[in-house]
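I have been asked to look over a protein record a colleague put together. Alongside the sequence sits a line of tokens, each denoting a local backbone shape. Please read both lines and tell me whether the tokens look consistent with the sequence. I do not need a full report, just your reasoning and any doubts. I have pasted the whole thing underneath without changing anything.
>
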Amino acid sequence: MKKVLMVSAILLSAGICRSVWAGDVDVAPLDSAPARIARIRTREVTVRVLDKDGNPVIGRFRAEMIRHQFLFGCNIFMFGKMPTAEENERYLERWSVLFNYATVPFYLSQYQPRPDKTREAKLKEMANWCASKGIRVKGHPLIWHYPWDNPKWLPEDMETLEEIYQARIKDLVEKFKPEIQYWDVLNEPTAAWMFDSPVANWENRIGPLAVAKKGLEWAAQANPEAKLLINDYNLNENPIRRLNNINDPINHYENSYYQFLSDLMSQGGKYHAIGIQSHMQWGKATMEVLWRACERYSKLGLPIHFTEVTVLSGRKITRPDPLEFNRLWWPSTEEGEAEQAEYVENFYTLLFSHPAVEAITWWDFTDRGSWMGAPAGLVRKDLSPKPAYDRLLHLIREEWWTNFEGDTDSQGGLSFRGYCGDYLLHLTDAITSVPFSIECGQKDGQAIDIHL
């Protein structure tokens, strides 16, 4: 198996290849984003209010949006880990005002540090809290080759290892079926060739394609309704490397994530969404690069999830030096926070305007406990909001949000254009409300009957 310096491994596993993502923000692809958002994220509907006998109800009603259909997400890894109970409560309050989609950690080294010990109770607590708030949940990840996620108790024997992962996947997907609807089944398959760990050796022996097919099959058996993802960062395509690897007896796909996904699909691997990481510690992707990635991967015909979005509010890393990681002096700065806020607005506006994009997940919510100790949060270590938090809150809960009040017509109809998502219909002079949803999967003009 190929070996590389650990420094190079850290750079690649970070989810950013500088040749792809480096550059300043280019706003050109944003020009028509508002018009696209209005077209693909809203629908004209008529809510018909009827009594129990089916007769139209004439009156004044208020439609109140409560949740987007689009998945605005973030990992929730600091759940219960803040220094005080008050800070834990504030963390969840600020998190849940902004997001409707949570990534919870199932790293094997953390979830099951010993064969006889798991963190099931803690993960159930996290998932149940999300479910109680109407927040959809993704488990991350089920299979990962990275040495840190391969605990010492994992066997080298590949037959035994495969049995362990089959049991792990079936157990978790079945056990968390009520709370968790999405799973990252295989993480970073195009990078396994760089590592020497039990899972990496398994992937490199039979190929990441075979491992992905097995993992997807096991997860689907445990919960046929689950939404399964492959998650990777390697958007680079190097024709020279492809020529160098043409005689590789096992296709490790280090050259092309797109080709891996295409081959997985053509060979019967059933996954439901494409996970694209976008950690930007080394530099921010231009809007044009982002748009091209969306256009290319949308050709596979599946929804795209931007799974791990990191944008710094401090200095970027200039070289892949592991000694730079987790430095206490890697601060958030006033200038960095202003740049982060501007980029966040452009990034979310562009991706929300692409019809193939179904989810965006931020990584991490707060600077406290962030990956690499980076100033990557939307809130600071003391949980005070950065400008990027306020900017994103304005977009999600104001600019891209619908509340409507009006009188029904003679047929009990109340017509308006609204963002796709979940709503409550209120009688303006009554306490009761009735839920309904606007679906982007439906065309304009959908009629929604509500019986009081």
About this structure: The domain at 6-37+65-399 is CATH 3.20.20.80 (TIM Barrel). The chain is about 35% helix and 20% strand. Confidence is low (pLDDT under 50) at residues 1-27. The first strand starts at residue 42 and ends at 50.
